[in-house]
Design goal:
The protein has 170 residues and is an alpha/beta fold. It has a domain of 115 residues: 3-Layer(aba) Sandwich (Rossmann fold). Helices cover 44% and strands 18% of the residues. The protein contains six helices and five strands. A five-stranded parallel beta sheet has the order 3-2-1-4-5, sandwiched between helices. Helix 1 links the parallel strand 1 and strand 2. Helix 4 packs parallel to helix 6. The radius of gyration is 17 Å and the shape is globular. The N and C termini lie far apart (39 Å). It holds the Pfam family Usp.
Length: 170
C-alpha cells in the first residue's frame, strides 16, 4: 500500500467556532460535512466574554442590571451554540461536544483544540479586516500562526452579503 502525500489526511476531531453571524451557517455546514465524511468527532465552540465598558454602560442603562453584560455575552453565545448544534445534527453530523468558552475567540478555539486533540479547526472569515484587525490581527491570522493542527477558513459564497460590523469569525 502506498501513501500519496497529495491526499488530504483523515481527521478524527474537528473543532468549529460559531458566533451566530451570517457566516456561521456555511461554516457549521462545512464542518458537519467534513466530520461526517471523515467519521470525525465534531466539537462546536462558542466564545463569549464580558462586554466592553461602553457596551456595559448601554446594557446597564437599558436593563438597570449591572450583571447584564455577563448575561448578554453568555446568552448570545448560548443561542449561537444551540443553533449550530441543531444545524449540524440536521445535516447528519454527530456532535461530540458543544462548548461555551469564556475567552476571546482565538484563545477559545486554540484551548479547545489542544484539550480535545483536534486535528482540524474550522472558522468563518469574511471581507476585508478593519484597521484594528490589521494592527492587532484577526482570529484567522492568530489561528494560522498558533494552531498545532490544520485550519480551514470558510469564505462567504459569491453574492452572500456580510454586514459591516458583524463578527468576522463564525
Amino acid at each position: 500500500m502506498t501513501t500519496d502525500s497529495r491526499i488530504p489526511p483523515d481527521y478524527s476531531t474537528v473543532v468549529v467556532g460559531t458566533d451566530g453571524s451570517d457566516l456561521a451557517i456555511p461554516t457549521v455546514l462545512r464542518a458537519a460535512r467534513v466530520a461526517q465524511r471523515t467519521d470525525a468527532d465534531l466539537v462546536l465552540v462558542s466564545a463569549w466574554s464580558q462586554l466592553g465598558r461602553r457596551e456595559q454602560a448601554k446594557s446597564v442603562a437599558s436593563s438597570g442590571d449591572t450583571r447584564a453584560s455577563t448575561v448578554i455575552g453568555r446568552a448570545a453565545a448560548n443561542a449561537a451554540l444551540a443553533s449550530a448544534v441543531a444545524l449540524a445534527t440536521e445535516h447528519g453530523a454527530t456532535v461530540a461536544a458543544a462548548l461555551m468558552v469564556r475567552a476571546e475567540p482565538a484563545a477559545a478555539l486554540l484551548e479547545t483544540a489542544a484539550e480535545r486533540g483536534a486535528d482540524l479547526i474550522i472558522i468563518g472569515a469574511a471581507g476585508q479586516p478593519s484597521l484594528a484587525e490589521r494592527l492587532l490581527g484577526t482570529v484567522a491570522s492568530e489561528l494560522i500562526v498558533r494552531a498545532e493542527c490544520d485550519v480551514l477558513i470558510v469564505r462567504p459564497t459569491r453574492g452572500q452579503e456580510i454586514e459591516v460590523g458583524r463578527p468576522e469569525s463564525a
